[in-house]
Design goal:
Blueprint (H helix, E strand, L loop, with lengths): L7 H16 L17 H12 L4 H4 L5 H28 L6 H35 L4 H12 L1
Helix pairs in contact: 4-5
């Protein structure tokens, strides 16, 4: 559904958006190019816990070959990005105040990003499996890789 820019409702909507942007400190000319996404409480808690875990310290201290450690870090980062995009997707889906066409386009873009990240995660996991086999890791090291992969 498109709103004719000449209608009073459209004018009111633009005026309210402009006032909201000004109140938030954004310059008036930038309000159209920005979007506000709020993460759910669960997503914020998950993010805070991840920061509290001191990054990838456990991976760095694992004693695994550097190629395996690098892939484990990459996989963690991809998982975090996917979780963030999914939280944005949920927030966008629950935003009833957004124009349906704009929401559809943003949802499609987020779904494409999630799909791309999932493909990268699958590829990184396959590379980790391959490198782990080629590195002749011990049984204990393989278990350590598995543990770090799911944590």
């Amino acid at each position: 559904m498109r709103i004719d820019p000449a209608t009073p409702l459209a004018n009111l909507t633009r005026r309210m958006q402009r006032q909201t942007a000004e109140a938030g400190g954004a310059p008036v000319e930038d309000w159209r190019d920005s979007a506000r996404v709020s993460l759910s409480a669960a997503s914020r808690n998950l993010s805070a816990r991840a920061r509290e875990q001191d990054g990838n310290k456990d991976i760095d201290e694992s004693g695994l070959p550097s190629s395996v450690r690098d892939l484990l870090k990459m996989i963690r980062e991809l998982k975090a990005q996917i979780a963030e995009k999914q939280a944005q997707l949920q927030a966008l889906m629950s935003d009833a105040g957004m124009d349906p066409e704009a929401r559809r386009l943003k949802l499609e873009a987020l779904r494409n990003e999630i799909s791309t990240l999932n493909g990268a995660l699958t590829s990184a996991t396959a590379n980790l499996t391959k490198i782990s086999r080629e590195s002749d890791l011990s049984k204990e090291q393989m278990q350590q890789v598995s543990t770090l992969l799911v944590s």
